[in-house]
Design a protein that fits this description.
By secondary structure, this protein is an alpha/beta fold. The protein contains ten helices and 15 strands. 26% of the residues lie in helices and 16% in strands. The protein starts with a strand and ends in a 25-residue tail after the last strand.
Length: 415
Amino acid sequence: MKAIMVMYDSLNREMLESYGCNWTKTPNFKRLAEKCVQFEQCYVGSMPCMPARRELQTGRINFFHRSWGPMEPFDDSMPEILKKGGVYTHLVSDHQHYWEDGGATYHNRYSSWEIARGQEGDNWKADVAHAYEKGAGTVFENKKVMLEYPLYARMMAQDRINRAEMNTEEKTSQAVTFANGLEFIERNHGEDNWFLQIETFDPHEPFYTLPKDKELYPHHFEGDAAMEADWPPYAPTVESENTIEHVRYNYAALVSKCDRYLGKVLDMMDKYDLWKDTMLIVNTDHGFMLGEKEWMGKNIQPMYEELIHTPFFIYDPRNPIQGERRQQLAQTVDIVPTLAEFFQIAPPEFMDGHSLTPIIQHDTAVRDYALFGIFGGHICITDGRYVYMRSCKDQENGPLYEYTSMPCHMDRPFS
């Protein structure tokens, strides 16, 4: 048996045709829905990126005891468990947080891995004349952004350098990532017992695409011609409706690019008839606010539906059900036990997840509720219809302890 997981970052389900969007162009997600079981009630567990990935490897809720950080020495890792059980595991990704301090213990759990550089200010290409070092007296050249966002000054400067290196389709990070994944399938489709994770950072901001994708969404932008408006800040919206619309079109263009590369995986599934013995999972870590409820971004606002109610698809060759939808609750933590059961390997002993097989087969519930939130912030619970959302106030949210043997944040050790 084999399994392929295609994972996106910040994919908003409300932007996909199969979930009811009537203006984006995502024909391959529609094609996917016809080939798989589409979940209507899938929720994240912990926000944002690396907390969600820790859940993806351990099957445990992350936000209970720590914020963004590495895999812990005491963690059970799904790809490592599969590897020890005789399943070859391979990761291809352009998700640059895997090679920062707060994520560098994840990709090494796989049998092998490949990276594609250049996303979101990744410290990749060197251009001293256009670098940005605060207080160092170097030149900071960058197009205007939607708002002054000093927190991202260095990243935006580096991103400008990286984009110059990704000026053709085949050089873009997502294209390289999928090329690496397709190469693995081409080389190994006849072998047995492997798990491939194709993980792209897109459509995470910045919403960088080439003209071919932007032309899918013609519109008139009234803003400054020098303004990219493809890297929205995590903040309440103060922009004009025209600018917000422009941001949405930039995001939609990137979603359509994601759709195009998803089609290449489906083509490969068809070419080698992998449907007979290969599980296919298509998922994301969370969504993204694009002006809804007067918010952009994620993490700081309440955990609205646009952030935590995610698209999710599974094809299981043991239960080759196609073109059906499922209404029962599922979460990110449920992927680990589902894969373990598929490969007939004992899952981690301590998990919050459940195998999704009963839902795939008969839409039978595996959980009564979904619990989601962010460390030190909003925590929520839903039964699929109602959400109880509990906010925090700074003066009422302490003391707040982090339980970790890996004292690192996103890109630096604890102070």
